[in-house]
Automatic annotation (TrEMBL):
Transmembrane segments: none annotated. This is NAD-dependent epimerase/dehydratase. Pfam families: Epimerase. Residues 3-232 form the NAD-dependent epimerase/dehydratase domain. InterPro entries: Epimerase_deHydtase, Lipid_A_modif_metabolic_enz, NAD(P)-bd_dom_sf. It comes from the Bacteria.
Length: 310
């Protein structure tokens, strides 16, 4: 198929694009490539790969590219509550309005697979799993814009949305700010972390299993069409304290302390059921332990000390 991915040079896209090309699809990536780095350099050898330098909010580019695609995957976004708070205008125009503009240009024969965040659940009821039928209560601008974009995709009738758990794992375009990646990095480099509101729970998913979820949604589109699906590890609804305990098994010298005062700016706190997507035949390949071991290998190669003398 011909697949258009906006923001395809990012954390998820840099893992997804090589995989889709391996399967024989023609992949066009619309991205600003603003970092000027080489996350997708290896796939340039593939004649089915077409990079387009531009902004996902450029409607002239959408007019040109959208009609050519069988499948559209809008990944372009400001991801995470802190980044959206830093630039609220870009968050609304990129996370929400650009997706609405893309969807408006699609036909009923095209397939849209869109990633949402399960932070849209906000603060869940204690001990009660959030399902796709649970009320959405986003508490950050990031969550709000993604929920509004999801509504546009589903209302259009030719989309599937995947409500992603907190993603972790190594990727060509690496992110160290995601919770599992961050805590594991701190375990390796600082040997310690101070936790705010350590009882807050959330769900987790490896980046390669996210890609597997997109592959599954494309292959099963006719039966999944028009629905939202939670995508996460059913055995990994963990608090921050429980996550640290997992990491400590891999890094015994790791020390974690819960601060008696202070707040986490990201207030989400919920447990999630992934039964709906599992009932369609999807299952994860990467456990949390396997992902932490992968990160530990990866962190032997990464330096994050640009302005250090050491």
């Amino acid at each position: 198929m011909k697949i258009l991915i906006t923001g395809g040079a990012g954390y998820i896209g840099s893992t997804m694009v090589p995989r889709l090309l391996e399967q024989g699809h023609e992949v066009t990536v619309l991205d600003t490539f603003e970092r000027g780095t080489t996350e997708l350099a290896a796939v340039c050898a593939n004649e089915n790969f077409t990079p387009v330098k531009g902004d996902a909010r450029d409607t002239r580019l959408l007019d040109e590219l959208v009609p050519q695609a069988d499948v559209l995957i809008p990944l372009a976004a400001l991801v995470g509550a802190p980044l959206c708070k830093l630039d609220p205008i870009a968050a609304k125009t990129l996370n929400q309005e650009a997706v609405v503009d893309l969807v408006k240009r699609t036909s009923k024969d095209q397939k849209v697979v869109f990633p949402v965040t399960n932070s849209g659940y906000g603060i869940g009821e204690s001990g009660k799993f959030c399902t796709e039928e649970s009320p959405l209560n986003p508490i950050s601008l990031y969550g709000i814009t993604k929920v509004e974009a999801e509504k546009a995709v589903l209302d259009n009738g030719n989309g599937v949305t995947l409500r992603l758990a907190t993603v972790f794992g190594m990727a060509p375009r690496m992110r160290l700010d995601l919770l599992v990646n961050d805590f594991t990095w701190r375990a390796v480099t600082d040997r310690a972390v101070v936790i705010f509101e350590g009882h807050f729970k959330r769900n987790y998913i490896h980046v390669r299993d996210v890609v597997k979820g997109f592959e599954h949604a494309i292959a099963s589109f006719d039966t999944m069409r028009g629905e939202a699906y939670n995508l996460g590890l059913s055995d990994a609804n963990l608090s921050k304290i429980e996550l640290c305990q997992k990491i400590q098994k891999h890094v015994p010298s790791f020390v974690y302390l819960e601060a008696p005062i202070g707040e986490d700016p990201d207030k989400r706190d919920y447990i999630v059921s992934n039964e709906k997507v599992e009932a369609t035949g999807w299952s994860p390949d990467w456990s949390l332990d396997r992902g932490i071991a992968e990160l530990l290998r990866g962190y032997k190669m990464i330096r994050n000390s640009r302005y250090s003398n050491v």
